[in-house]
Amino acid sequence: MGSEGISLDDETARSVLILDSDISPLRFGLTGVSGLPLLALDFSPRSTGDRDRWERRLGFRPAELVVVTTETRDPDAVGADAIEQVTSPSDLTGLGMKATEHLARWDDGADAVTPVVVLNSLTILFQYAGMQAIYRFLHALTTRIANSDGHGVFFLDPLTQDDKTVHTLASLFDAVARRGDDGEWTVSAR
After folding, report:
1. Structural domains in the chain plus CATH codes
2. 21-49 in b/e burial notation, b at 16+ Cβ within 10 A?
3. Which of 73, 117, 164, 180 is 20 to 30 Å from the Cα of 107, by its Cα?
4. Largest CA-CA distance found in the chain, in angstroms, rounded
């Protein structure tokens, strides 16, 4: 695939697992995306509603930005349209409810739009929940995203989990993207 990114205008890549270091300075570029709303489920220490950061990270500028995090923030102070809060990354039920609420809103009526959901990151979720709970949560979330004709991008640092865990998680996604030592992305479609 190279460094140009993954095209999300392809129906075969509705949900993508990105295997890369969370501290990577390089961005993961999505192509075929513009003017879409972004739901950022972001538990990184640097979680943000900064549109510029998401544009650098994903390769497109969100038309609407909703951030779900554990931190209390003023949406106006960070540039997000809305910031939702859950008590902890372990609150997978609350997280799923927030995601469902926004997916339903964007999927409602004649003005339905195609949302992009980003989970940053699975690495952090594994610090708060076990494999079985995360697997069930991801199965439900990727199904909701597909039912709303949306796209999902899920980040995981593969060095934090064993190969069996990474392989099991990968079975939930339409594609898995991995950046090699040379900085080039390779994508495996299911």
Report:
1. 6-189 (3.40.50.300)
2. ebeeeebbbbeebeebbbbbbbbeeebbb
3. 73
4. 45
Q: Which of 8-22, 140-154, 173-187 has the highest mean pLDDT?
A: 140-154
CB 70 within 8 A of CB 42: no
Q: If you count DSSP H runs as helices and E runs as strands, how many of each does the chain have, helices first?
A: 6, 10
| Nearest Cα residue to 17 out of 121, 125, 162 | 121
Model confidence over 161-185: pLDDT tens digits? 999 999 999 999 999 988 888 877 7
Q: How far apart are CA 140 and CA 150, in angstroms?
A: 14
Nearest alpha carbon to residue 123 among 156, 99, 154: 156
- Enumerate residues 6+ apart whose C-beta is below 8 A from 101: none
CA distance 109 to 162: 43
pLDDT in tens, 103-119: 999 988 677 888 999 99
- Between the CA of residue 149 and those of 15, 138, 144, 168, what are the distances in Å? 11, 16, 9, 24
